[in-house]
């Protein structure tokens, strides 16, 4: 208590210093209390089937309320929350909230949740199981997105946990493919169902023809490996039609829809064209 009060005062002390340092410490203080003060919120971004444009589901994206009616983006606070060791608790909240929301939707749409590496050090399988049990959401509707940063630490333990999660019926998604090392060996070694190609790849599309060739190759490779493939960051009609022609199964991006609060997502579902047969429904 005394320690945390001491840190809170530091924020005041640092006003006028290097702006970045100040923001960082302000964020640390906000993050320490964010779960208690209910400052976190999930927004939901739609994913559409490329071929039919039908709504398949949403990705849950974490937001931190800034106290002035705005939001702080996860790119700014997740790394700090990780340093502080808070991501397992935050991640548990995200899983519970996302599953509860999806269980209330009038259609059996999927919900994707991003995981941080630290969550694999705690008992992730139990946390996921309990989020499903508490919400009543069918495991087949939950997707867990992970990035390659996860595999650097303890690949064997991660692989074991992914297999246990898949045994529950949950799907596992490789996120941000095309950034970092994007090693193909991860795709062999881990039981992925889906590959999300990072939006930076589609942003480069207009720059040269070879980018298009590579993106077509990634789609073909995914097909060969029996992975569904998602095009992220689709903002323009040109990107959309390219992704469709290149064989991408699903599209996500501002052109389809921006991340939106829970109530807006509900309205979106009520007016959207929802796929009558969902792609994973016939899977075990
Ligand atoms: P991500 O999982 O790759 O999520 C996609 C990000 O791209 C989101 O940013 C989304 O708003 C943004 N995006 C989607 N379509 C477009 C587009 O057409 N154009 C542009 N310019 N951007 C688009 P956001 O919400 O800021 O999230 C950033 C990252 O933070 C996420 O990347 C994810 O890695 C992480 N994140 C978000 N929520 C959570 C969470 O609950 N837990 C953890 N551990 N990480 C999270
Ligand atoms: Mg993601
Ligand atoms: Mg992504
Ligand atoms: Mg990304």
UniProtKB/TrEMBL annotation:
According to UniProt, the name of this protein is: Diguanylate cyclase (GGDEF) domain-containing protein
* Source species, domain of life: Bacteria
Q: Could you tell me which residue ranges the EAL domain spans?
A: 24-273
Q: Which segments of the protein form a coiled coil according to its record?
A: none
């Amino acid at each position: 208590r005394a320690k945390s009060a001491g840190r809170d005062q530091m924020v005041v002390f640092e006003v006028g210093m290097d702006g970045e340092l100040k923001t960082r410490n302000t964020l640390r203080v906000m993050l320490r209390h964010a779960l208690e003060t209910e400052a976190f919120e999930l927004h939901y971004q739609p994913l559409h089937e490329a071929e039919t444009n039908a709504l398949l589901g949403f990705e849950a994206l974490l937001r931190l309320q800034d106290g002035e009616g705005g939001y702080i983006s996860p790119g700014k606070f997740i790394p700090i929350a990780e340093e502080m060791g808070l991501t397992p608790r935050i991640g548990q909240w995200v899983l519970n909230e996302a599953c509860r929301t999806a269980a209330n939707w009038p259609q059996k749409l999927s919900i994707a949740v991003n995981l941080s590496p630290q969550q694999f050090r705690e008992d992730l399988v139990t946390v996921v199981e309990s989020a499903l049990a508490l919400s009543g959401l069918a495991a087949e509707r939950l997707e867990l997105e992970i990035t390659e940063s996860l595999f650097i630490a303890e690949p064997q333990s991660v692989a074991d946990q992914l297999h246990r999660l898949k045994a529950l019926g949950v799907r596992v998604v490789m996120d941000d493919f095309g950034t970092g090392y994007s090693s193909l060996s991860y795709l062999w070694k881990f039981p992925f169902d889906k590959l999300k190609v990072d939006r930076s790849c589609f942003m480069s599309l207009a720059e040269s023809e070879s980018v298009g060739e590579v993106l077509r190759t990634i789609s073909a490779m995914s097909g060969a490996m029996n992975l569904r493939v998602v095009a992220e960051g689709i903002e323009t009609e040109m990107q959309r039609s390219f992704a469709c022609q290149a064989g991408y199964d699903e599209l996500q991006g501002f052109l389809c829809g921006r991340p939106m609060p829970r109530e807006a997502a509900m309205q979106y579902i009520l007016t959207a064209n929802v796929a009558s047969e969902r792609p994973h429904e016939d899977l075990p």
